[in-house]
Amino acid sequence: MRAPVMLTRVLMGLRSKGLFWTLGLSLSLGGLGLLVLTLYLQRSFSAIETEHLREDALRLQAGLAQAVAQRARGAREWSQWTQLRDFVRNRDTDFARSNLSPASLRASRLDWLVVLDREGELIWTASADGSHFDAENLLNRGTPRGQRLFKMPPPGGHCALDRWLGQLVVICQLPIHDSEGGGEPVGILLTGESLDERKLDELRSILGLRFNLLADDPSPTGGSDFEGIAGAQLETGGQQLRLSWPLRVGDEAAHSLLKLDWPREMHTQMQRVLRGAQALLVGVALLLAAALLVVINVHLVHRLRHLQQQLSAVRTSEQWQLRLTVEGHDELAALAAEGNHLLERIEQQMEVLDAQSRTDSLTGLANRRGFEARLQEALTRCNRSGHPLCLVLLDADHFKRFNDEHGHQAGDRALQALAQALREVARRGDDMAARWGGEEFALLFEGLPPELAAQRVKALRALLAAQSVGEGQILAAELTVSAGLALARPQDGPESLLQRADAALYRAKANGRNRLELESA
Questions:
Q1: Do the Cβ atoms of 217 and 255 come closer than 8 Å?
Q2: What is d(CA 136, CA 155) in angstroms, rounded to the nearest whole number?
Q3: Segment 438-480, tens digit of pLDDT
Q4: Is the separation of the CB atoms in 138 and 42 below 8 Å?
Q5: Which long-range contacts (CB under 8 A, 24 or more apart) does 471-475 make?
Q6: How far apart are CA 168 and CA 129, in angstroms?
Q7: Is 225 helix (H, G, I), strand (E, B) or coil?
Q8: Which residue among the candidates 439, 446, 517, 519 is catalytic per the annotation?
Q9: Which pLDDT value is given to residue 4?
Q10: In which region does residue 514 sit, left (phi positive, over 0), alpha (psi from -120 to 50) or beta (all else)?
Q11: How far is the C-alpha of 481 from the C-alpha of 468, rounded, in Å?
Q12: 301 CA to centre of own chain
């Protein structure tokens, strides 16, 4: 009666303590939860905001690259023009005045055009507004730009966004071919198309981004790589982010600083989410207080009583393989786990004791008790499947005389040698060797016909004949065995099969020993 009373007192104490701690913890955890959620959401939305800003920045760079590529396609049509190739060869000024005129450039949306021969000699220049084009400034060999433009470009040519004379210009450098684009290039075509504010507005509208290209190229103070964008600097404002980085489109630096003004829509959204989360957490804290009281009052009591019932069932039934089961991952579950460790240790000890009760201590083979259990199982399988089952009973010949002449220690070694030989012939998983008692042994062969079982016994006798029993030269006696073999018959039981095998063993002894006799028909 004391155990139920003590359990009731414990549970009443748990209820009162649970009420006190639930009220305190629900208030504390609610505030802590709000703080953690705020920090988590700020970090999460900041990561999302950074990723979207990076995507827009890369999209802006890709848009500028696309703008350069579109202008490159128009310039490439000029460079693959058979008549232009012929002009480079024959220097026909009439052709140039008619076809390389300001009107032709305006029609192609080019601002200027320069034609050079293969050696870099200036052949022709033209500008869309008809004014004199300062080719010497463009082709100044004292500048990296001038040195590059004098060289023959690769077969496909290249275009880059560059800043020249205070303007952003798409400068293309292309080899001059015929209309088929074949043969050796005869010269170099240089074209330029400026990106004025109107064109940049068009690009802003297409991309849906607010950006500026500064005329100068100031290096951002403290600039570093921002998510793969080299030399970028991020400025954080209240509702807006500004990302600045040196612009590079094509093979050459554009000598401009690109500034992207990015509205912080994610930040505004996060503020809305936080306000909703705060209201939600207040409600959750109240529900948590009620839920914890239910857990302590109902689930804890139920689990304790369930654990007690399981322990009582194991104790009364002595079924040590049973295990305690408690849901959850708390102290009760840990207590059940410790109880299971004890039950496992008890089960192992019981298995060891059972194995010892079925094993012969001298030879390590199964003893008579273990063999009889296996024989009953084998007969059941044989009757069900129809497979053969052979039983062999063996007896060490003249073993009493051996013990008298050489002593019991030598006799024990002889039995151990015989056991080792039995293991070697009963090597299949369906075979079994056992010490029946004293110097008598047994072999069981499942699924093996009598002729093959007899060969195993013959192999056993050969193994024994090949070894001596004893230590050094003191003992050299041979150990021989007599054996009787019986084949299981339908509806055979252990006693009838053992009787026939024992009768065959008796005949083997009567017929001179050291031999195998089969059961009589």
A1: yes
A2: 25
A3: 899 999 999 999 999 999 999 999 888 887 544 443 344 568 9
A4: no
A5: 471/410, 471/413, 474/406, 475/406, 475/410
A6: 17
A7: strand
A8: 439
A9: 47
A10: left
A11: 14
A12: 41
Q: Is 439 a catalytic residue?
A: yes
Amino acid at 98: S
Higher pLDDT, 415 or 358: 415
**Which tens digits make up the pLDDT trace of 117-165?**
888 889 999 898 888 888 888 888 888 777 788 888 888 788 877 777 7
Place of tokens 């990302």: 243
CA distance 222 to 507: 106
* 3-state secondary structure at position 387: coil
Band of residue 3 on the pLDDT scale cut at 50, 70, 90: very low
Residue 240 tokens read as: 């807006």
8 A C-beta contact, residue 384 and residue 447:
no
Rounded Cα–Cα distance for residues 459 and 172 (Å): 95
Alpha carbon distance 78, 172 (integer Å): 11
Structure tokens at 193: 């198309």
Structure tokens, 293 = 């009281």
Give SS3 for 101: coil
Instruction: Determine the Cα–Cα distance for residues 284 and 354; give it in Å rounded to an integer.
Output: 57
**From CA 170, how far away is CA 254, in angstroms rounded?**
9
> Distance between CA 338 and CA 331 in Å, rounded?
10
Question: Which token pair is 42?
Answer: 């700020």
Mean pLDDT estimate for the chain: 79
Helix 494-510, helix 368-385: angle, nearest 10:
110
